Write the structure tokens for this entry.
Amino acid sequence: MKFRQFLLSRVLAWAITIFIGVTFIFFIPRMFPSDPVENMIGRMVNLSGNMDPAQMDALRTTLRRQFGLEGSLLSQYGSFLWKGLLHFDFGPSLMSYPTPVNEIIGRNLPYTMGLSIISTLVAWLFGNTIGLLAGFRKNARSSKILEGIAICIYPIPYFIIALIFQIVFAFVLGWFPIQTNILTNQGFGVWFSTLIQGSVLPFLAMFLVGMGWQIISMKSLASTTAEEDFVLFARYRGLSEKTIGLSYVFRNSILTQITALAMSLGGAFSGSIMTEIIFTYPGVGQLINGAILQSDYNMILGCITISIVAVSTATLIVDLVYPFIDPRIRYA
Amino acid sequence: MKKFWKNANVRLKMGIIITAIFFIIGFVVYFIPHQDPFLYNTYPPKLGMSAEHWLGTTGMGQDIVWQLVEAIHNSLTMGLIVAFIGTTVGVFVGLLAGFAGGALDRVLTVITDTFVVIPSLPILILMTSLMRNSNSTVVLMALVLAMFAWAWPSRQIRSMALTIKERDFIHTAKFSGEGTLQIVATEILPFALTWSLSNFMNAVLSAIGQESSLAVLGLSPANLLSLGNMIQWARGRNAIFTQQWLWIGTPIVATVILFIGLFLLITGYNDYLSMKRGR
């Protein structure tokens, strides 16, 4: 495949994913019989007792405008694409009215991206190193034990590991705070130290699950590569095990693992959403949780659109790094 | 059967044993008559382990053992429905794309690939948060989860179909006058089904996982006694802070063991297949 062709296909796939995702987000709520505006008015009437009909009509019009529910379906769709996708404008948040949704998401997104990207990268590095060693010496007892541990960790959902960590390390042993509480208004030093303190457990939970898969897949890749003819030939040539391991087995197996990195980012983002809710970590997951509790649909739509854009873009970036590592695509 | 068990690797055997235990709990033990574990205050709350209540009772006076049995039953049922729909649709779309070729293949592949990479949790959150006010059921929940369960098997089956299409025995069948439909049904489908079995189990696992993630967000149906809801209810009623470890610990441990069992079954089965293929 030519480099330009590769680039074009990836960017196209990126655009299509976001487009289909956003189309989903637009049409799904409109397919459901439940009307968010009527739900909200119902809640308000419940809370405030009686409301006179003229007031309710005025409220209905205002809410319809703020949810972008005016006009034909097509024009709604057009303005949703234009405002939501190109300007990230989702209207005001209803739980902290009148702050715009995108401002609140802008405050929380860096925490989610930081948590998921850092834990995924670290898990990828450690997992591949361990997986390579285990695959290269696949009959050693230590590598069998390591793989066994990885198999027991990987299938468990993120939030269960997070919950177990919270119970064991924060509640029973008391080593870390049970809930993350990041202080933002007392200067950089306090912010940084509370950030680190509150991030250790969420990070460890995500790191552990993420690493499990990398160990398993790198081990199986490395052990099949180690049986290829060119590795056998390298052994006959009398190359050292270290050279064979690094320049032969590692370099060939890592290519698949870079694609795996791109695939695992989406999972890590979802995992981060769940982990945040367990630890009340101030990221997008926490926002989604609050928005669901308070029926803040603008916020839910905003968080979900941003999630899809963020995950697809992170995947695209990893994909675009690929040709710099695989010479077959660069020079073909 | 005996021969299969002799050839099976350790992981496959362990996976089969663990999964079988869960299926027996969920579909045999479940039918032993018992008090509805959903009702509050059937027994005194916060009891410890005893001969009568093996794992004690919850803070709401429900028996934890029977709650677990029903949760396993419901979670497995939901997982099986999702896996069945996902695998059927996946095999169908995959075979269609692989055999039709041309423009249809390209369109189907783009859609499939999008469904594979699109982050499913946010969209599931959106859908279930809209369903929350209506009375949603296990089946509705399963249908929603199945939306993302077909894409991965479809991709696998398509690439399998592309390689099989060129094998000699397919050409032989074609030259002996079999129609495309008949070839797909008699020659390809058996292949596709052995392949899909591991996808099927994977779909069961991920559906149960997704349902429990949604439960933590309070988005799983409130009348559904599932493993995820059991964890969430214990968490929501402060089982951690009041140190009722049996209440919160039981569903966590059960979920972890079930997932490890299913995963061992999947990887063990894949290894078994590749060994049978002589690799």
